[in-house]
Amino acid sequence: MSGEGNEPQAIRKLQPGKLVIASHNAGKVREIAALLEGRGLDVISAGDLDLPEPEETGTTFVMNAELKARAAADLSGLPALADDSGLCVDALGGDPGIFSARWGGENKDFNHAMGLVEDKLAAQPDAPRDAHFVCALALAWPDGHVEWFEGRVDGTLVWPPRGTKGHGYDPVFLPIGYDITFGEMDEPAKNEISHRGDAFRQMVAAVF
Ligand SMILES: O=c1nc[nH]c2c1ncn2[C@H]1C[C@H](O)[C@@H](COP(=O)(O)OP(=O)(O)OP(=O)(O)O)O1
Ligand SMILES: [Mg+2]
């Protein structure tokens, strides 16, 4: 008999049709839509559907991505893709991490958030400025099935912030091997190396 639990579960394929992008962050929605282009998907954002922004009560990126994807799939009756991501700074023990959006405060002010990181690092002038971005993607179906993927990009932090092209903490993040920040990089170039691009390539290989 099959299904005894020892064989790996097959990954569920995503069929052409409607897909909800379960994010209220315009910068992320823009990048995700570009990464999904040309795959026969009719992409709708959580904002288009007026879906509420769920409280992110998880303790990991994957837990929060799953919570957001499930909420959107349940409410819309459609497959939903969520992204939970953040900046992890080595010298700050991985902060802001899953709290990256919350460090922007009620106004989602990332100049403020980048300033907080700078202030906390100022207390450790000799510590390395190593940091990485993480992106967890969760793809949830209305019947409760979920697939997860996690991507990462390593870099160092620089001040003052540079560039106006990205979003969030992009202006202070210098990816390894580059001399421009994510804030100075065109979106296709960022997607080639970013945490989000990394997670997407894994997802695309698995579900298409
Ligand atoms: O490529 C990125 N470049 C710069 N900053 C980034 C990036 N990716 C994540 N980040 C930072 C800012 C963002 O606000 C937070 C994610 O927090 P996170 O909860 O996943 O997203 P969010 O609250 O902004 O939108 P939503 O939860 O509706 O998808 O990490
Ligand atoms: Mg969020």
UniProtKB/TrEMBL annotation:
Sequence similarity: Belongs to the HAM1 NTPase family.
Reactions that this protein is recorded to catalyse: ITP + H2O = IMP + diphosphate + H(+); dITP + H2O = dIMP + diphosphate + H(+); XTP + H2O = XMP + diphosphate + H(+)
Organism annotation: Sphingomonas hominis
HAMAP family: Non_canon_purine_NTPase (MF_01405)
Cited NCBIfam families: RdgB/HAM1 family non-canonical purine NTP pyrophosphatase
Entry keywords, A to Z: Hydrolase, Magnesium, Metal-binding, Nucleotide metabolism, Nucleotide-binding
InterPro entries, A to Z: dITP/XTP_pyrophosphatase (IPR020922), ITPase-like_fam (IPR029001), RdgB/HAM1 (IPR002637)
Residues binding Mg(2+), per UniProt: E55, D84
Subunit structure: Homodimer.
Protein's UniProt name: dITP/XTP pyrophosphatase
EC identifiers of the protein: 3.6.1.66
Taxonomic classification: Bacteria, Pseudomonadati, Pseudomonadota, Alphaproteobacteria, Sphingomonadales
